[in-house]
Write a structure and sequence with these properties.
single chain; 24 strands; about 625 residues; 18 helices
Amino acid sequence: MKRLLCLWLPDWPIQRRRIPALAPTAPRPGEAAGPAERVDTAGPVRLEQPVHLEQPIHLEQPVILWHTDPQRGRIVAALCPLAAQVGVRLGMPIAQATDLATMSGAVIEPYDRDADRRALQSLAIELQTELSPQTAVETLQRFKWAGRFRHDPEAILSEIQGVTHLFSEPCEVESTPHQRTTDPERAGELGLLAAAAKILNRQNLCGRIAIADTLGAAWALANHAVSESTRATSPGRPAHQFFIAPPGRTETALETLPCRALRLQGEIVATLDRLGIGTIGNLMRLPRAGLATRLGPALCGRIAEALGEVDEPLIAIAPQCEHSATLELEYPTDATDLIADRISRLIGQATTSLHPLHRGVLRMRCQLELTQHPTLVFETGLFAPTLDQSHLTTLMLGALQGHRLESLVIRITVGVTQHAALSSRQPSIFGPDFAASSHDDWTGQTEAARLIDALSGRLGEDAVRGVRASNDALPENAIIEFPMTAHRINRAVKRSGRGPTARQRSAAAAEQIDAPPPSVQRGFGQGPKTTDLGRRPIELLPDPQPITPIGDGDSGPGSGFPDRFRIRGRVEPVRQHWGPERIETRWWSGPLIRRDYFRIELENGSRLWIYYHLGDGTPAEADMEKRWFLHGRFA
């Protein structure tokens, strides 16, 4: 059973103003976020952290953020609690909010959605590095969930199954005032919560963290669970709030939460309120069939995801490159010559660790963090691995020329996203001049790879393509085109030295059973052998062209080979023919296709490759009139 963690940051646009920098900072001396002391074992476990920020940052002035609504104009998008105390509300016109904020000296600024997303992505990367590699920013849908004013991500999700033991402490973890737990899984989850709280403390952030068996349940607890401190009358609330649903008790943990905790549309929640269904527990007692009929399948799908009946995928963010280098510029700039020089230096630093491994770069990525716009990311691929810094710099700068810098650059990061072993070849002992003058050009392969890399960088990866053989039985699918600088990671397991598997043996036995005896000939003539020189044509038509046989009666298997064909309006007599060769697709590759191919020689000396379409045995195929097709021409 999976265990997932959800970290929700309430009022994220306001909290982002407390972050001192996007880069992770070092822990403060003496900072600690120990295990929680208080646990409520009734329903979902609620943990209250007694440790506050060492130096909490409070906004002395009210802060109001506004954005432009297509229909209502400038309205309030986010506000701090101080602004709410003077009467400002979400969605209020900014003119009214300004009048209320003038008396309290509030700070009014535009809402920067791009900056919020960049900061949340940076925090997710830090959590991915220190907590769990399977970390993602919450994925939004087309509609806004009930209770959400802004259609922007505010939560970070992580799959913690298999990593909690790394945060377990050898000592017992206090779970209640009267009992202690020695369960390593429970101790690991408590230690992981303490580690997450320490990261938030470094960033001066306040979050609500929940752990449950499903992604939907963790999100619902983090966003809508009621904590003990909220019920208390004391005005101060803890820095962080924790909620843990014990394994196997997801339904119990969700029972008292409101229906909007299932991430539903506002119309569905409004309908449930009119019907008097206020909690998830009341909703789950109703039959699913009736809910799907009256409120749509989306509601039943959310219930199934929250209970774990349907697996909800977690789209993890791309991990940081193992071989990378980052440079923080002294001052923001848009000078292309300076940026090009810094990229060249970073390429050398990023590839230094590949030299002792004898591996070269296959794909490289560059990120330019801008002052007022989203991060600019561009990458380049190579045909063959290399460590030539000048060649890599030329390709990266060529990729940069296809982008426009919308604002100033503040940070540059270069990383190797894919690398491979360098090919080892023995150069001539007399130097490259002697080798170039001889018949063995030992630099030919390198020059071809450089040409492919340069063309792909200028024209795009999809413009420079190669071909490889395919296992498809149809001749038109015998080869596959692929970008020559886009490499696939081969995950196949090599079976060198092993015999065929049971599945391969059964497939070979089925082919032998289906194959006709050697003495039996189907169709007309004799089929080609693999040793025939002219077994396949030089030219293959993009689309088979229908041709008409000329003769008495129906021409097909068992009725004799036609003597003449009408090809493109001309009657062509057939001098001789060879075949047939049966080509038939398998059932797992789609609709059944069966063809009998023939090689024919016409009276004028030209040789063609034609086939008789056998169909799949359905009535629609049996009524077809044009069953002969021209597919290729021999030289």
